Amino acid sequence: MRIILFGSPGVGKGTQAKILSETQHIPHISTGDILRNAVKEKTELGMKAAEIMNKGELVPDNIVIGIIKEVLKSEQCSNGFILDGFPRTVVQAEALDSLFDELNIRDAILVHITADENEIIKRLNGRRACKVCGAIFSLTEIENLSRCPKCNAENSFYLRDDDKEEVIRKRLMVYQTNTMPVLDYYSAQNRAITINGLGTVEEVNQKLISKLKEKILVA
Ligand SMILES: [Zn+2]
Q1: What domains, with CATH codes, occur in the chain?
Q2: Which of 2, 13, 48, 123 is flagged as catalytic?
Q3: Residue 36 is among the residues annotated as catalytic for this protein
Q4: Does residue 48 have an active-site annotation?
Q5: Is 128 marked active-site?
Q6: 18, 36, 69, 88: which is the annotated catalytic residue?
Q7: Are 46 and 34 in contact (CB under 8 A)?
Q8: What torsion, rounded to 10 degrees, do the Cα atoms 89, 96, 191, 204 define?
Q9: How many angstroms separate the CA atoms of 155 and 175, rounded?
Q10: Each residue's pLDDT tens digit in the chain (219 positions)?
Q11: pTM of the complete model
């Protein structure tokens, strides 16, 4: 399975990526992680990227694509992959398609996880972070607890700015504006499936797998 994972903030994309990776035995390739890794390992592209980031500039698409290429070519991706965090623009989607052509990859599918805006707000708004260790919990998980289950700090739970309603609405709007063209790009080529991210983690995962298998069979 070759998957490009896509979804608005708060739909549980990270959780789904983790399950998919475990059950389908394919690596979760987060572009943020592989970029950081390339920098750490001081690969040729990683050093170029570091130089640009040190100047406070955005790493250009061709370098990111180059780093993605190294990973997709490697043995760990021979049975598939879950690409996460790229593409975010149509230009990037086109560049990724050229790379797929080059690597003879023809079956990559965009999986779009979506959810109702009010549900996302409810979900994120109901999260609390520990200000000491940064762990995130749902309100039900920490009900009646005065200490963080992870680091044992006392009274350390708080609502992050990122999880406040006003900020979430803004993030969702930015997400919509920036990423909808990417979704359209894949949909127009019949290479996208959309999953409703509501429900338990298992329910969403089952929906995802069955839709994916359907899509792969049809293709
Ligand atoms: Zn903690």
Answers
A1: 2-26+79-115+179-218 (3.40.50.300)
A2: 13
A3: no
A4: no
A5: no
A6: 88
A7: no
A8: -70
A9: 33
A10: 999 999 888 888 888 999 999 999 999 999 989 999 999 999 999 999 999 989 988 899 999 999 999 999 999 999 999 999 999 899 999 999 999 999 999 999 999 999 888 988 888 888 999 999 999 999 989 999 999 999 999 999 999 998 899 998 998 888 888 888 999 999 999 999 999 988 888 999 999 999 998 887 765
A11: 0.82
